[in-house]
């Protein structure tokens, strides 16, 4: 494909995406394809001869679109949002077009330096503690995901807890990780990859109302492990758990970590974005104790996957934990010690120029635009919670400090399960579920850029009307 062909087909591709975005709200959110249907629409083998681009483009509508779940639909409320935006997509295109590998500073200085500055900009926008800024001993890096951030934090924590022994000889003593019973599954996965095993993760009890980690239970778990001769290496606290957006009490947890010299990693994958708003920064109280922190701009901050923002307070420790120096990567800039080589801050060697999408997004929206986006999600969640509260057939199950609302039918699990299935089957809204105190609970995660008050109101009407079919109109007074 020569540059002129690229220009022509590129315009057609951008048109296709713009059309998709402007019509996505009219599509059924989930695919009706049974398993295997998409694969059956594809030939059994790659074509022998190259094809024309229009033929490829035409097959998108035939082969791919019917098998899509439309994550950018304004009534997609499942999981957490996976925001994308025009500036983010255009920057991703640019990153692909440049085709730069940013593993070393020397392999493209702009790829490293734009990233360092963007991470400082983001730290400023969230008002993160000074210790995470590159101007001091810390710094930020873009990881592909919060899962990778937790893994990298775990490795750095093991390096520190073992006094450097872990790097040479692996996990030979019993190192321990701690997270609440509500901690994300990626914490166990990181522990397994790092060699601690699933048993190396201590699940810490949460308080029964707000579901935050109980500091006394954390202390008891640490003491029990110390008494058994184990080594507490890392505590992963969460701001905004996946199940209900619970907030662990960082001031107390941080003080315990400081007392025992345990690495504190804070996972704010979804909720971290809220800290662009000063009125929501209380959710980050105690963050000054953290050795590392991450959140996903690819969830709620208008930046397409993949983009996890990860910071450490001691970048030298992180680099020591992860660096390996083969002859073929040696170069004068690295040798001078004056540059950052981000390969030493992550698992893989290669890396894309992902900072471009942060740069574009932050400039296009400005801090004001980002705050408006977060505030809109929080206000809509508030509005939804009001509607749930006004209907006696339902109950709110957890606090909703961000844009996730958890609720269920008082009638019971069976009715709540049926409700979710029926609502999703309409194709007009999509919610997911969790279990809270063992009981089936619907999660409605607001935060897509296209979602308006009318979408939330109509979705609630759909939920409420479906509830009437299942449990009758009794108790309804909204
Ligand atoms: C979504 C989520 C993760 C995982 O995010 P990825 O970036 O997809 O790895 C981790 N922790 C929490 C609290 C999450 O909500």
Automatic annotation (TrEMBL):
The keyword Transferase applies. Keywords: Aminotransferase, Decarboxylase, Lyase, Pyridoxal phosphate, Transferase. InterPro entries: Aromatic_deC, PyrdxlP-dep_de-COase, PyrdxlP-dep_Trfase, PyrdxlP-dep_Trfase_major, PyrdxlP-dep_Trfase_small. Pfam families: Pyridoxal_deC. Its cofactor is pyridoxal 5'-phosphate. One of its GO terms (molecular function) is transaminase activity. It comes from the Bacteria. The keyword Transport does not apply. Belongs to the group II decarboxylase family. This is Aspartate aminotransferase family protein.
